[in-house]
Amino acid sequence: MEELRLGTVEARFADIIWSREPIPSGELVKICEKELGWKKSTTYTMLKRLCDRGIFQNESGIVSSLMTKEEYGAAQSEKFVEDTFEGSLPAFLAAFTTRKKLSKTEIEEIRHMIDSFGEEE
């Protein structure tokens, strides 16, 4: 999972793709030149790096994601909870709520998620 972690510049690049996909690679080059100040070679190097990590693909000059932004965020969250709280979501929530109190709306949203996604015994 470590290979999925994106640095700041990689995350900006990924957001460009996620917000415009599917996108022709030539158009991606133009956008990255304008928004990031990159040369064509820089864009293709970064694209290859993220394709090698299994986040994006470049098929016949069309760039698209293999993992949505939401799936990427979920994978990163799982990794964080696993590494920091030995995989315990209750331990994460306990730590989180010691510094930030949850609103009634947030508590209800969490209850709804637990009810809808909880495992049946």
Short description:
The protein is mainly α and 121 residues long. The chain contains six helices and three strands, in the order αβααββααα. The chain folds into two domains: 2-69, Winged helix-like DNA-binding domain superfamily/Winged helix DNA-binding domain (Arc Repressor Mutant, subunit A), CATH 1.10.10.10; 88-121, no CATH class.
Question: Describe it for me?
Answer:
The protein is mainly α and 121 residues long. The protein folds into two domains: 2-69, Winged helix-like DNA-binding domain superfamily/Winged helix DNA-binding domain (Arc Repressor Mutant, subunit A), CATH 1.10.10.10; 88-121, no CATH class. 66% of the residues lie in helices and 8% in strands. It has six helices and three strands. A three-stranded antiparallel sheet has the order 1-3-2. Strand 2 (56-59) and strand 3 form a beta hairpin. The mean pLDDT is 91.
Per CATH, the class of the largest domain reads Mainly Alpha
Strand content: 5-15%
Q: So what's the overall shape?
A: elongated
Question: What is the terminal separation in angstroms?
Answer: 30 Å
**Cα gyration radius (Å):** 19 Å
User: pLDDT average, as an integer?
Assistant: 91
Unreliably modeled segments: none
For CATH, the homologous superfamily of the largest domain is named as Winged helix-like DNA-binding domain superfamily/Winged helix DNA-binding domain
The percent range for helix content is 55-70%
CATH architecture of the largest domain: Orthogonal Bundle
Following the backbone from N to C, one meets helices and strands in this order, namely HEHHEEHHH
Biggest beta sheet attributes: 3 strands, antiparallel
Structural class: mainly alpha
